[in-house]
Design goal:
TIM Barrel; binds zinc ion; 10-stranded mixed beta sheet; binds alpha-D-galactopyranose; Rossmann fold; 9-stranded parallel beta sheet; 660 residues; 26 strands
Length: 660
């Protein structure tokens, strides 16, 4: 039996006498693994070179006696006070040039060589200590890399690192000047040493420089993680290495980071949400799907919400079985293991109210019983699911650089790259159509329909990739702001928008409009719909007009087009459709592409499949506190659940069928 359920455990927060009770309760609950120590540097090295691993070793061994394995976290997101006292320069500098001090976490600069020296000493000692401990199976490097301060670090060390990175990329300063377009506002450089980190300017920023900075920061984080991964790989060749991601977070390119890891892990808190009682379900689902794409493998959840969340302000109390529904949502989208955060609610520190499975009192209650029931019900199935993957027919293209480019120039104050992806994702999700996220360099030929929103930065290779996909029968959706810039974030000038892709789409875009503080309309079919944020004013060069603007002086000019090309179709959406138009449009695209839906049900009832070589599992999850009915479009055998086509509040049903 492999490992599928776990908890994040902090024995150092509790008296030694309690540990045995914890281990016993965990075992009874079906817990097979704990993650420990990812913030406990001071407890393990209270003074330089004085290592105190005994408590951790005791905890590892004790848990192992109960059949519970350990994943160790390297505590490098929380350097202790004595390191800061000795080397205050490792504390990061924000864009206003202020230092960020000790007292929270992530108070470190990732390029700083002195800090790296501390890490080398500590991680070497820790990995030597636990390399042969039979209770330890793997490592989590640091914690939520990139979850630090908004601007990462802009200190002198980072400045030198940035200059080195630029030198490697451009080779000569003339090339950098050309890529950054420094003819503008007298921004030319004579040498790399004049380039600074983007500390706050008097006015404006250079978009090409900013794109390089963001890519540099991502590379720096990967380099920082590699520094530790190399040590652990050398000392602990039998252990896996993972890292806990944060869904769509973008400080580090998660595809790049994934190359260092044996598998990707993710942290999910669907109930920690500002607007309303929880995160919209489609966003949590999309997050799982993107996490699966980072390594194109099943993943782990290293922190799955297990109670009410909150630091200073608190979220809603999860209702009976809601946590189970969220946990199985993770599994349905590709998680092979679910580790709950955290075992017991902390009595001290910033996260006193970020609740665990046990409350402050440590007494098992409703949530313990609920999750125990969950592990009992699904433990055996989890063995069977392991390694299986969803097999969607639809893909949405996701790219960190496009995201960065829109952070630098959002165009419209409310336009964000990830939210734009969500808008497309949601329409599929609510129709019970599984979706993959893909990188723009991936082979697209396995997908019947590919949505590539906001293809702002364009290269000849990427253009060709899209041509090839459609030529060979693919159905492609491109949207507003496609083909505007080159890879260096400079506007392209050789052709009218959307560049060479205009030939694929059978259009040109001589003008465009930003719907600042207003909305517009389009006519699609016989109906008028609301559109937002942007209007590409399209001229047809062979394409068919699907929808035209009904507002603005460009009323009646095409807004959405269709072009047959090779054996496929290229659609172009020159605006942001509202939800209703999105649904109607995508229904049309789905019909043309012959996409299968899993079933019909109300919003809030989720359907998702995972497939192994010979078997398909279908999950039907009721995320509402009402009873629900639903209908499946295919015949499956019910494995778990009371009654087909009916769901109790927050019920999770599991079906299967053999593949032909
Ligand atoms: C993150 C971190 C955890 C903890 C939780 C709750 O996901 O990885 O250490 O802080 O959030 O706040
Ligand atoms: Zn720095």
């Amino acid at each position: 039996m492999s490992i599928h359920f776990g908890v994040d455990y902090y024995p150092e927060h509790w008296p030694r006498e309690r540990w045995e009770t914890d281990a016993q309760l965990m075992k009874e609950m079906g817990i097979q693994v704990v993650r420990m120590a990812e913030f406990s540097w001071f407890q393990m090295e209270p003074q330089e070179g004085v290592f105190r691993f005994q408590w951790l070793e005791e905890a590892v061994n004790l848990l192992d006696q109960y059949g519970i394995k350990t994943i160790l976290g390297t505590p490098t997101a929380a350097p202790p006070a004595w390191i800061i006292e000795k080397n205050p320069e490792i504390q990061p500098i924000d864009r206003e040039g202020r230092r960020r001090y000790f007292g929270g976490r992530h108070h470190c600069c990732q390029s700083n060589q002195t800090y790296r020296g501390h890490i080398r000493r500590f991680v070497t000692a820790m990995s030597e200590k636990f390399a042969d401990n039979p209770g330890v199976i793997g490592w989590q490097i640091d914690n939520e890399l990139g979850n630090s301060h908004t601007d990462l670090c802009m200190c002198n060390s980072c400045r030198l690192y940035f200059q080195k990175w630029l030198l490697k990329k451009y080779g000569t300063i003339a090339r950098l000047n050309s890529a950054w377009g420094t003819a503008f506002w007298s921004q030319g450089y004579n040498k790399f040493s004049q380039v600074r980190t983007p500390l706050i300017t008097a006015a404006g920023e250079n978009p090409s420089a900013m794109l390089d900075w963001k890519c540099f920061c991502s590379d720096l984080i990967v380099d920082f993680a590699k520094w530790q991964a190399d040590i652990i790989r050398e000392k602990c060749p039998n252990h896996f290495i993972t890292h806990n991601y944060m869904c769509f977070d973008d400080k580090v390119n998660y595809y790049d980071l994934g190359e260092l890891l044996d598998f990707v892990s993710n942290d999910v808190y669907p109930g920690h949400w500002q607007e309303g009682s929880h995160q919209p379900l489609y966003q949590t689902a999309a997050a799982h799907d993107v996490v699966r794409s980072y390594k194109k493998q099943p993943f782990w959840i290293m922190e799955q919400q297990s109670g009410m969340t909150g630091w200073e302000i608190m979220g809603r109390l999860p209702k009976p079985n809601q946590l189970s529904a969220w946990a199985m949502q993770s599994v349905a989208h590709g998680a092979d293991a679910v580790v709950f955060f955290r075992w017991r609610t902390c009595a001290v520190g910033t996260e006193q109210f970020w609740h665990g499975i046990l409350g402050h009192s440590g007494k098992p209650g409703r949530i313990y019983d609920e999750l125990k029931h969950l592990t009992e019900t699904f433990a055996d199935y989890m063995d069977a699911f392991a390694g299986s993957m969803p097999k969607p027919e639809v893909a949405i293209v996701h790219n960190f650089r496009q995201n960065y480019a829109f952070q630098i120039q959002p165009h419209h104050p409310k336009l964000t790259y990830v939210k734009e992806l969500y808008k497309y994702y949601r329409a599929f999700y609510e129709k019970k159509i599984p979706v993959d996220f893909v990188q723009d360099t991936d082979d697209l030929s396995g997908y019947k329909l590919v949505i590539a929103p906001l293809q702002f930065l364009m290269t000849p290779q990427l253009e060709q990739h899209y041509f090839d996909y459609v030529e060979n029968g693919g159905h492609l959706v491109l949207t507003m702001r496609t083909g505007v810039k080159d890879a260096a974030n400079r506007c392209m000038t050789e052709r009218e928008l959307p560049g060479r892709l205009g030939e694929l789409c059978g259009i040109t875009i001589p003008e465009y409009d930003c719907l600042l503080e207003s909305t517009g309309g389009v006519l699609y079919g016989k109906k008028e719909y609301v559109i937002k944020k942007w209007c590409d004013i399209i001229e047809l060069q062979g394409a068919k007009c699907l929808a035209e603007y009904s507002t603005g002086f460009y009323k009646q000019s095409p807004a959405i087009t269709e072009n047959a090309y090779g054996q496929g179709i290229a659609w172009y959406i020159g605006t942001e459709p509202d939800q209703e138009l999105m649904e109607d449009l995508l229904s049309y695209f789905e019909r043309c592409s012959e996409i299968a839906t899993l079933g019909t049900a109300a919003d809030g009832v989720e359907m998702m499949t995972r497939e192994s070589q010979d078997q398909i599992w279908l999950f039907v999850i009721n995320h509402t506190d009402d009873e629900q009915v639903y209908h499946l479009h295919d015949r499956y055998e019910l494995l778990e659940g009371e009654r087909e086509e009916f769901l109790h509040p927050f019920e999770v049903q599991l079906f299967t069928k053999q593949k032909k």
